[in-house]
Amino acid sequence: MKNILVTGAAGFIGFHLCQRLAEDGYTVIGIDNLSDYYDVGLKKERLKQLSAQDTFHFHRLDISDKSRLEWLFGKYPFDTVVNLAAQAGVRYSLKNPHIYVDTNIVGFVNLLECCRHNGISHLVFASSSSVYGANTKMPFSVHDNVDHPVSLYAASKKANELMAHTYSHLYGLNCTGLRFFTVYGPWGRPDMALFLFTRAILSGEPIKVFNHGNMQRDFTYIDDIVEGVFRIMKKRPEPNPEWSGNTPDPGTSYAPYRIYNIGNNNPENLMRFIAVLEDALGTKAEKQMLDMQPGDVPSTYADIDDLYDAVGFRPQTTIEEGINRFVAWYKTYYDGK
């Protein structure tokens, strides 16, 4: 890997990945449109941290802007591209569907076209555990069918996987999709449960507990996500010689294309997650029990055997470790704000 493009560099995962790559001496070009979906100030603070690295260079750019993206690929000889730019959020997709099409569909095909025409050796792109949708067989495996999404966000991520496979088939583009499972940690997204719960508890406000707490999530700490992405970046996908059109395997292909889960492989009950947070804050939460929200799923649980077989990595961070690190960051960051 030489010059690396990371889209969504001001985002939660993008920031941490860029930081890791720049600290390791890689030349990183980061782009982001600085969407106001959540606090732009937090995104700018992340970029301020990254700007301290000599090997990191930032351009404000939206991947849905085809001409600007083509200009960027003409300016830099990228070797590896990591696409973390996306309109995130399951519930938001029920209210603002068109932005998911603009960024997650139009933007992604722009990126595929740029990779195709500029000899990119490996495209790594973020998918999501949301693609498992109505599936109930646990743990979720990349070899299972995922044709029943329950939100437009999930459908857009499944579409990314299909689009990437098409380019892998037609043009030999090396593509690897990564299904992330409920990522949390310092510098996290303010719309995610841990951030929302922490803010509410410290403010003496009730927290919203959906499905009356009967939820399980494969909470995955950010450092584990970054380590998984970093290792996958260095492993280009190879065609599976055993792939058959009679019994098609969704996780592999006859083309240079692969899908992996990156999750903690240890689903936690939401109520236990809240209890660990209460311990870390030293404060009990007032809980507002609510029904399941449209688009949500009751449980997620990642089968990561393929990830381990490919790169020898399994996430190790417990929720006790991860939540305490988040709380320490949160208190430091918001002290005096």
Task: Describe the structure in your own words.
The protein has eleven helices and 13 strands. The protein has 337 residues and is α/β, with parallel strands linked by helices. Strand 5, helix 6 and strand 6 form a beta-alpha-beta unit. The protein is 40% helix and 16% strand. The radius of gyration is 19 Å and the shape is globular. The strands form four sheets. The protein has a seven-stranded parallel beta sheet, with helices on both faces. Strands 7-10 form a two-stranded parallel ribbon. The protein has a two-stranded parallel ribbon with strand order 8-13.
Gap between N and C termini, in Å?
Answer: 39 Å
Strand order of the largest sheet: 3-2-1-4-5-6-11
Q: What value does the average pLDDT take?
A: 95
Number of helices: 11
Q: Percent of residues in beta strands?
A: 15-25%
Structural class of the helix and strand makeup? Answer: alpha/beta
The radius of gyration over CA amounts to 19 Å
Shape descriptor: globular
Please supply descriptive tags for the structure shown above.
337 residues; alpha/beta; two-stranded parallel ribbon; 11 helices; 13 strands
Give a quick precis of the structure.
By secondary structure, the chain is of the alpha/beta class.
